[in-house]
Amino acid sequence: MIKALKNMKAAFSGTMMKITPGMITCEEFDKIIVDYYDDNLSAKQRRTFERHLKICPHCQDYIKAYNESRKLGALSMEEIYNDDLPEDMPEELLQAILETVKEKP
Amino acid sequence: MKSIQEIDDKQFIRELKQFDPKAQTLLVKHYGPYLRKIAMSYVKDEAAADDILQDCLVNAIQKIEQFSGESPLRAWLRRIVINTALMRIRSQKRKAEDFIDPTTDDFDAYGTRLEAPWPQFMNAEDLLTQKDLSKTVRKKIEELPEQFRIVLLLRDIEEMSTKEVASALDINEGTVKVRLHRARAALKQKLEPMLRGEAV
User: Domain range spanning residue A21?
Assistant: First the structure.
């Protein structure tokens, strides 16, 4: 019964998004996320994106998690790149590089 | 977080430009491990990363005249190692396992997103105070199929534009956008237990 109600609610909200002028569905919203954050949308598309985001709780949660995971990924990668790593270069690799430099001055 | 020490003072660069073997050895020893880590994040294979590192450093030493000093030496080397890795990747055939299910984001028949409710959100900065968490996140990034992982690294870590990535990988901009979105969506899915504050 609850499942049936949920399905009805989803169908209603999806259909409403589809038939209301200036509204998009979550799936259509999904396709322009990259362009939105790259600032590649027209003013009209941008308004449509933001309107959907304002009224759709699913996409609000999704976008929040999407952006937080991007940040988590970037900070974790930067850590590896900026860390003063204790490891040394393997000696044979170091020698191979220096030998190649000598051979090809 | 400690920063890798910059050693590119004017004297050092001058010695490199004079092909001084001692300066070259210092360059390789100092920046080698850092560049190797970057190469590894692109190719995930130690032997391939070593080849890339070797090509990168030999190239850098031989073309040191081209280093203008406008950016730090480390940034110049980072760009060379990434270009070297991309050249290698472009020259290889696409692997069969390079695939992310296009339905990573789920929608119902009416185009409504099927997102499980988020009773709480953890933020990235707080999460990263946990020991070894960044290592776990990097492992999740490594798990992404190559063609998606590379677009993600170039766009979100190197902060290259869609146009630059398209040109570097010899693919069209539309493909870059699709891969980027799928990579971000797949990463979100992999990091969800952490972001939801569940056990990692």
Answer: 2-80
